[in-house]
Amino acid sequence: MDRRANGHGLNEAPGRRRSGRGVVANRTRRASLAAVVALAGWACAGAPEAPPAREPVRDERAQERDLFPELSSQLERQMAEQRAAALARGAELKAKEIDPFGAQGFESRLTELGVPAFAGCARGASDWPRMDALVALRRVDEGDFWASSPVLGDAGESRALRERAPATPIVHVSCTLEVEVEPVIQGGFEARLREVRFVALFDREISWWNPDQRGDESTRAHAQVHLDLAYLLAREATRSRTAPLRARGPTERSALDRLGLLWANHLGEIDRELRALERQLDLETSQGWDAAASQRWAERLRGGLGAVRAAMPAR
User: Fold this and answer.
1) Confidence category of residue 167, pLDDT binned at 50, 70, 90
2) Which of 131, 161, 164, 160 is nearest to 146 (CA)?
3) Which residues contact 90 (CB under 8 A, 6 or more apart)?
4) Do the Cβ atoms of 169 and 227 come closer than 8 Å?
5) CA 163-164-169 angle, 5° bins
6) Does residue 20 or residue 252 have the better pLDDT?
7) What is each CA distance from 171 to 56, 239, 278, in whole angstroms?
8) 219 with 288: CB under 8 angstroms?
9) Is 59 exposed, middle or buried (0-12, 13-18, 19+ CB in 10 A)?
């Protein structure tokens, strides 16, 4: 039989033509077969993996709150109180007035003098840096008072009131220390203090001697009591085993910040007791004018801090 090739490459009998429906059916079958083959290949190769879900980025402070919820809230509250107190104190001071009192004020004082500091203590020194303005003394003399006028008192005393004093000695309790941070097995980091040594300091640069009292031994003796109070507190703090010497955090910075705040609070407690003792000293001695009362304080100090504290009025 004579067969002719149609336009689709298929041989058909003459006079016989395929309908459009048949052509569509053939194309549909071919497409279905191709889809089945492709699906089988996809199944053998394995489905492509979905991209990993991105973990939400967590704020470091949120991590700290999760790890240390009670301590973190306490520290944040203390920081807010310290900021409010600093703002209130700053509002009372004149522009560029030096405020050497308290742990925060002394931290600024160290920065002003170029001493590398950590929470109110000198870093990286085996002994207190040898400085002219801020020195570790055991005996104070008239020549150690360099200021031309008195600074404001820690309780916001007026300049006029302090100018009526025979002298205004400024003493501090500070320390020298080393700081190190290391990772811990449980995760996070631990900041530690070592080689801590407390010291009583006399601030020559802002201590003032009334010019009308030149050569007065009773004024010097009263200033010595102030320094001796700081010395006894520094010695007790050096011997104490209750100081916070370490703290942990999820990062190096958070561990250091936590330890810095704990240490500043510890140093602040010592400073608050020193200021309370100094206020009582100045009250009982009329700021040093009463030489006999200053002598009684000097004798009391020979009995140590226990004797001094026992004589303090009940709060």
Assistant:
1) very high
2) 131
3) 99
4) yes
5) 60
6) 252
7) 51, 20, 10
8) yes
9) exposed
Residue 139 phi, psi dihedral angles, 5° rounding: -135, 130
Q: Which pLDDT tens digit goes with each residue over 94-134?
A: 333 444 555 556 777 777 777 788 888 888 765 565 667 88
Cα 181 from chain centre: 14
Where does the pLDDT of residue 221 fall: very low under 50, low under 70, confident under 90, or very high at 90 and above? very high
DSSP-derived 3-state class of residue 182: strand
Nearest to 308 by CA among 199, 220, 225, 222: 225
Rounded CA-CA distance 152/77 in Å is 28
CA 258 vs CA 105, 166, 174, 192, 262: distances in Å: 19, 42, 19, 11, 6
CA distance 278 to 287: 10
The confidence score (pLDDT) of residue 228 equals 96
| pLDDT value at 267 more than 50 | yes
Report residue 69 as tokens.
Answer: 């919820």
Q: How far apart are CA 120 and CA 84, in angstroms?
A: 19
Question: What DSSP element (H or E) covers 32?
Answer: helix 20-45
Whole-number Å distance between alpha carbons of 104 and 83: 10
